[in-house]
Amino acid sequence: MGLKRGIIICSFGARDLMLHTLLKTLYRNGNYGNSEVYLISDKLRDPLKLPIKDIVQRKLGEEDFEWKDHSRWPIRNTNLWLAKAALWERFESVCLLNDDMAIVHKGFIDGFNLAEKFGVCVPMNPRVYVKYNAMGADTIEEDRRETDKGPIYGTACNVSPMFVCRLHDHAKLLIETYIEELHNCMRGTLAFWFASWRSGVTPMYLPEQWCVGASNALYFKNYTKVLQGQKKQIEPMVLHWGQAGVRAVFKDIVDGMDKDRT
User: Fold this and answer.
1) Hey, where are the domains in the chain?
2) pLDDT digit string (tens) for 11-34?
């Protein structure tokens, strides 16, 4: 019998359109099998208006949120709550997703298989190095000072999607340390690097196609290789749909998917 798998999504604020796209693409291309889809939100969503009818919902109360005076409180709390959920006993193997993603390839299911072998999987970041990830728009000088305390040319990552199998002791240690770092209210991808450096646990890094952003959207849409004499497309897996540049490039693909579950 296989492990109990869960797909855990956080959605805080007025995000219904983004969430609808994620759920539509999850059903169409996610091949999530018997995984339970679990939504953590600041309000109960109307399942009749969403393409997946069997979502388990958990509504958070006002007291469950931190940093409410911070301009980035929704994403900061999203990172924190997804990390906490990775260790819930409800599941043994999970995929953690921000609500502004879109899944465009059925190979998405391999994220679970890889995490169950290696413990934790995250996509590489086009900023390449931790040094440049610390220069993101939502970072502050304190983040950069902290970054300078360790190697700055380690691998920069994204944290959505993140696949975690909590049955691995090293995976549990990494996520627990990540939660500690997130309480400093910093960019989630930097917190993840600090957690990896502190714990000595490195994830399996997935190719950038697992989280395609605006900076490389057109490149990855058209990316091909000649293999065994045939031109092959190296397909994107997951899109950061919340970025306007991604929506502009991949709009035809996502709009062509079924709007509702049948």
Assistant:
1) 5-255
2) 998 888 899 999 989 888 655 667
